[in-house]
Amino acid sequence: MSNSHFVRTQMLPPQKPPVGETGVIKWMRENLFSNWFNTLLTFLGLWAVYALVSGSAPWFLNGVWTASSVDECRAIIAASAGEGASGACWAMINERWHQFMFGFFDREEYWRPLLAFGLLFVALSPVLYFNLRRPTMIMTAGAGVVLVMLLWAVGTDGWHLSLAAVLMAALAALAWVAPKKLLWVTLAFPATAFFLLWGGSVWAPIGVMLGFGIAVLVWRSLVSVIGVSPAAGVAALTALIWWGFVQGHVTGFLANALPFFSLPAEDSDRFGGFLLSFVIGVSAISASLPIGILLALGRRSDMFLIKTLSVGFIEFVRGVPLITMLFTASLLLQYFLPPQTNFDLILRVIILVSLFASAYIAEVIRGGLAALPRGQQEAADSLGLDYWQAQRLIIMPQALKVAIPGIVSSFIGLFKDTTLVALVGLADPLQGVTKVVKADIAWKAAYWEPFIFVGAIFFIFCFSMSRYSMYLEQKLKTDHR
Amino acid sequence: MANAAKMQVTDEVAIQITAMNKWYGQFHVLRDINMTVNRGERIVVCGPSGSGKSTLIRCINRLEEHQAGTIMVDGTELTSDLKNIDKVRSEVGMVFQHFNLFPHLTILENLTLAPIWVRKTPKREAEETAMYFLEKVKIPEQALKYPGQLSGGQQQRVAIARSLCMKPRIMLFDEPTSALDPEMIKEVLDTMISLAEDGMTMICVTHEMGFAQAVANRVVFMDQGQIVEQNEPKEFFANPKSERTKLFLSQILGH
Ligand SMILES: Nc1ncnc2c1ncn2[C@@H]1O[C@H](COP(=O)(O)OP(=O)(O)O)[C@@H](O)[C@H]1O
Ligand SMILES: [Mg+2]
Predict the structure, then answer these.
(1) What are the distances in angstroms from CA A322 to CA A58, A234, A277, A430, A449?
(2) What is the pTM of this model?
(3) pLDDT digits (tens, 9 = 90+) for A309-332
(4) Which residue among A15, A143, A432, B201 has its CA within the 20 to 30 Å range from the CA of B248?
(5) 3-class DSSP state for residue B172?
């Protein structure tokens, strides 16, 4: 027996694992074929995907973009893909997209809603991105570029195109130099958008905004003297007096004295399509959040009257279908308003949709409030913060953070529900405009195309909202658990 | 032992509680509380769980409302008058068992929030004060972190610093160490001892009898909503008078 033995002096490099244990194959084995039931499900799933794609792919692939009627579309498809082949007739969208987008707005005035749309993103950027310079500036500049392209696409005249381009460039520069200053754009946005959309004299929307300005001034000068709630009451009263009795005379006088600042008036029945959905959706979303916050706080208040009113309002609104509210807007509200007030139908719908949404938002926020430990309020109290300071600085930031997913869900639901205005005779993109387009004998036979087109646009906006909410949740995450 | 030189008790009355009673609905949680705290005094309150210790000190800054009797803090009577409540709260700091830091704000923001909004201190000045007190509780390097990134002991020290930033004349502590892991208790107690050495008037609910012996000049024993017995620490631990006190002490010192 020899006494020698072999000892390795160097370690061998690790060998590659066998093929079955790496990459795709390993992943598939673990996730798709781990047992017979999973395998069965995998094949069923594959079959379903195949059926779906093979059923619809030809329809999309055979799609025709230029034709003057559905019949012509069919002829083209039959010629290229054979008799009996199915295909989409996108020509309908190609020819009528402007109605899906703008309803019956004057074609020469398309720059107005588009500019308002562009400014919307400028106005949102400081709010959505907390005045952070880079994202604010990117959003503003991006909105500017897209806006100019859209304006060009709808054939805007050179003068308005360059006006919009210069304005957006200036705002992007402002976003870079002083992102906080953009909040002024946000504050001025409601009046600006109203002026751009409805036209008429510029003094009317300025007058309405002045009412808010007056209220803020009154509040500021009184709050340290008589306390938060009475000051808010007096401020609201002053604003109401201004709107009710004074504003009309002042703006009427200004409109006569300085008539040059005006745009051709667009009637509300010209609004339709996504323009209508956006006007209602954006207004109701931005109004329902603050109202919802107040209702949620009211519901938790110690004061009996405020609590009862809040609970009553929330429960009543939640117990009534939205459609009822819309009919109220279109029919009933007119009875309650003083005669001769010609209160625009879209404005009425916006008010009732906002109230409707705010009840849901209030409940979502109440959920967020309930999730806060009681100690937060106590710590704020023990430091001497007053009620409103505690709500604003301590309670709401945390409650809203918890409530973000619910709030965004409500917003998405609200935005999609704007299509229900079809029921009170407004031309929503889904039913209202489609009906108008299909009233044309040439497009009567189209069926899926408008739904898919409108659905896709809704999807883009709702999906963006959802992604933004995820960004926000990530951004506000400070608990590091 | 703590440095006794500066721990002088004065004759000036800081808190005067007279014939105070409180109910939660039908439940009589505090009965006939009479208690005087002089400026510079350090009082430790102890007693079995549920005896009303938290409720008592929470009445002193009106986190809870009492229904009968009077509470005077620095000459201001606590009534439902909001002005008085605000005045008392801005003079009385409170530290909670669960810290109650604001999780969405950085440590520095936690400390500067109340000075800026309540005292209207300029931001720069509030931040300087905040850094001063963070140095004092020995965690200035954590200023820009969020509470969730700190250990329990560090969070409680931040909570103490947050109260101190309001320059209170009285500090209330409600079991400040009972939510802490044992190895962190000392750092918080050390902070409190140094506060006592600076002459702060303190009422502290705690079962840390070592702390009571080191800094308290009076221990108050509560049971079933009443003050059963109060005495200076040496006497209190050596010769408890009532049976209930003896039982309680044997329970917490027994093992
Ligand atoms: N908000 C409340 N409502 C009703 N009962 C309460 C409330 N807070 C405390 N209690 C009761 O009051 C008693 C005293 O509580 P507390 O002061 O927290 O005791 P301690 O701090 O001494 O443990 C306990 O029996 C407790 O159950
Ligand atoms: Mg307690």
Answers:
(1) 39, 33, 15, 17, 28
(2) 0.86
(3) 999 999 999 999 999 988 888 887
(4) B201
(5) strand
Token duo for residue A144:
């500017």
Instruction: Give the tokens for residue B247.
Output: 């039982």
Residue B130, both tokens = 């905040």
ipTM passes above 0.90: yes
pLDDT at A2: 54
What does each C-alpha distance from A172 to A119, A121, A122, A134, A142 come to in angstroms? 11, 11, 8, 11, 9
Contacts of A476 in chain B (CB under 8 A): 104
pLDDT at A213: 92
A-B contacts (CB, under 8 Å):
65
Candidate from B90, B100, B101 with C-beta closest to A378: B100
Domain segments of chain A: what residues? Answer: 269-481
Overall fold of domain A269-481: MetI-like fold (1.10.3720)
Token pair recorded at residue B211? 């702390």
pLDDT in tens, A370-410: 999 999 999 999 999 999 899 999 999 999 999 999 999 99
Q: Which residues pair with B230 in a beta bridge?
A: B220
How far, in Å, CA of B155 to CA of B95, rounded? 11
CA distance A383 to A377: 10
- The beta-carbon neighbor of A385 closest among B94, B117, B146 is B117
A165 exposed, middle or buried (CB, 10 Å; 0-12, 13-18, 19+)?
Answer: middle
Residue B10: what are its φ and ψ, rounded to 5°? -105, 180
The closest residue, in CA terms, to atom 20 on ligand 1 is B50
Residues A40, A240: Cα–Cα separation, whole Å: 68
Is the distance from CB of B73 to CB of B110 less than 8 angstroms? no
Tell me the two tokens of residue B18: 């007279």
